[in-house]
């Protein structure tokens, strides 16, 4: 990914006519993928993406380092999500669905619809488990394990220390693993229902005794 941005940045420096369009299209994909994670609803995610795209257009000629650009773009998206004050009371947000995740992956050059169909169940399990994580854990896990940023780069985007990134990442991975394992095990009775079920079984067995 960084090699592609390196090529785009060099094209911008050389005044390539199509470089700006290509950079904005790639930035749009990255921004939307991350805004989906941070904002948590479709309207704010789209607004954050638009804001990041505008900032990219304004600052494009100052871009020099591809990895620094990615980190800057993620910070821009995060700040846009945090500053969003959409009136949800009058316009309830549409929560992100698996289809939204797939649209983001497709926009970023992800797998084809045929590939997605073949792993729909696995993607659904991961999506549901991922959404149960606290937002600050989702952010760190996404940047480090999915987008491949370094610990130091994640720390800059999240505004925390590298040690805190490692701690959150460790906890996020453990929570995600437990959540997926719980879902794979199938639905479980809650404690109260388990007690009632045990009482019913005991009553039935007592009734059937000679």
Q: How would you describe this structure to a colleague?
A:
This protein folds into two domains: 1-110, Rna Polymerase Sigma Factor, Chain: A (Orthogonal Bundle), CATH 1.10.1740; 119-187, Arc Repressor Mutant, subunit A, CATH 1.10.10.10. The radius of gyration is 22 Å and the shape is elongated. By secondary structure, the chain is an all-alpha fold. 75% of the residues lie in helices and 0% in strands. The chain has eleven helices and no strands.
In short:
This protein has 210 residues and is mainly α.
Question: Main attributes?
Answer:
210 residues; mainly alpha; Rna Polymerase Sigma Factor, Chain: A; Arc Repressor Mutant, subunit A; 2 domains
Topology:
Elements: H1 2-13, H2 19-39, H3 42-59, H4 66-83, H5 98-107, H6 113-118, H7 120-131, H8 135-146, H9 151-158, H10 162-184, H11 191-207
Helix pairs in contact: 1-2, 2-3, 2-4, 2-5, 3-4, 4-9, 7-10, 8-9, 8-10, 9-10
CATH fold name of the largest domain:
Rna Polymerase Sigma Factor, Chain: A
- Shape annotation: elongated
Name of the level-1 CATH class of the largest domain = Mainly Alpha
Strand content: under 5%
Backbone CA Rg? 22 Å
Structural category is mainly alpha
Q: Please estimate the helix content.
A: over 70%
Q: Which regions contain 5 or more consecutive residues with pLDDT less than 50?
A: 87-118
> SSE string, helix = H, strand = E?
HHHHHHHHHHH
Integer tally of domains: 2
CATH architecture of the largest domain: Orthogonal Bundle
Total count of helical runs of at least 4 residues: 11
Mean pLDDT: 75
Main sheet overview: none
């Amino acid at each position: 990914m960084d090699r592609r941005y390196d090529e785009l940045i060099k094209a911008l420096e050389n005044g390539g006519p199509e470089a700006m369009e290509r950079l904005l299209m790639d930035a749009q994909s990255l921004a939307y993928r991350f805004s989906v994670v941070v904002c948590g609803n479709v309207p704010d995610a789209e607004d954050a993406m638009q804001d990041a795209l505008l900032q990219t257009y304004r600052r494009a000629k100052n871009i020099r380092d591809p990895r620094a650009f990615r980190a800057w773009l993620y910070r821009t998206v995060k700040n846009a999500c945090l500053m969003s004050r959409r009136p949800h009371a009058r316009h309830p947000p549409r929560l992100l669905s698996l289809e939204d995740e797939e649209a983001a992956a497709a926009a970023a050059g992800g797998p084809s619809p045929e590939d997605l169909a073949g792993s729909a169940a696995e993607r659904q399990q991961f999506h549901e488990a991922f959404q149960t994580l606290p937002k600050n854990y989702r952010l760190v896990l996404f940047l480090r394990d999915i987008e491949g940023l370094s610990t130091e780069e994640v720390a800059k985007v999240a505004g925390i220390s590298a040690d805190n990134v490692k701690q959150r990442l460790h906890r996020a991975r453990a929570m995600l693993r437990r959540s997926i394992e719980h879902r794979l095990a199938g639905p479980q009775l809650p404690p109260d229902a388990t007690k009632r079920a045990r009482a019913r079984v005991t009553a039935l067995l007592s009734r059937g005794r000679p």
